[in-house]
Amino acid sequence: GWTAMPLDARFSTVRIKESNLGNFVCDVMRRYHNADCTIMASGTIRGDQVYPPGVVRIKDITTCFPFEDPVVCLRVKGQAIWDALENGVSTYPALEGRFPQVSNIVFEFDPSREPGKRLNFMQIGGRPCNPEDVYVLVTRGYMGRGKDG
């Protein structure tokens, strides 16, 4: 395949903020599995570079995603998604791999607040997330097993 835009996989981007590469991968995962939302720990994204517009080679993909970690679909309550995002921003601004890249989720957090109490709000599909509602979440196996989320 190819890309018309540079794709940002730098640690200094993906580990502290939204990345167009993270958005793209999370969107593909969500749409392929027809899920409500996706969360992927940014530590999944390696390569630490900006991939220029043009042809995307297999080498680029394997450099950026070197781990054989399956995509998993989970049925989880909204509270579990909230908790995963809280965990994802708990060490911000440290360049740790837990920072969340997402699809169909909008959230805001305040890094001046203590860890575990940083999220201000979260929406899934443009609507406030109900802690008791069940959502289909797509993630990677590592996070699905409770790591970094």
UniProtKB/TrEMBL annotation:
<dbReference type="InterPro" id="IPR006179">
    <property type="entry name" value="5_nucleotidase/apyrase"/>
</dbReference>
<dbReference type="InterPro" id="IPR036907">
    <property type="entry name" value="5'-Nucleotdase_C_sf"/>
</dbReference>
<dbReference type="Pfam" id="PF02872">
    <property type="entry name" value="5_nucleotid_C"/>
</dbReference>
<dbReference type="GO" id="GO:0016787">
    <property type="term" value="F:hydrolase activity"/>
</dbReference>
<comment type="similarity">
    <text>Belongs to the 5'-nucleotidase family.</text>
</comment>
<dbReference type="GO" id="GO:0009166">
    <property type="term" value="P:nucleotide catabolic process"/>
</dbReference>
<protein>
    <recommendedName>
        <fullName>5'-Nucleotidase C-terminal domain-containing protein</fullName>
    </recommendedName>
</protein>
<feature type="domain" description="5'-Nucleotidase C-terminal">
    <location>
        <begin position="12"/>
        <end position="149"/>
    </location>
</feature>
<dbReference type="InterPro" id="IPR008334">
    <property type="entry name" value="5'-Nucleotdase_C"/>
</dbReference>
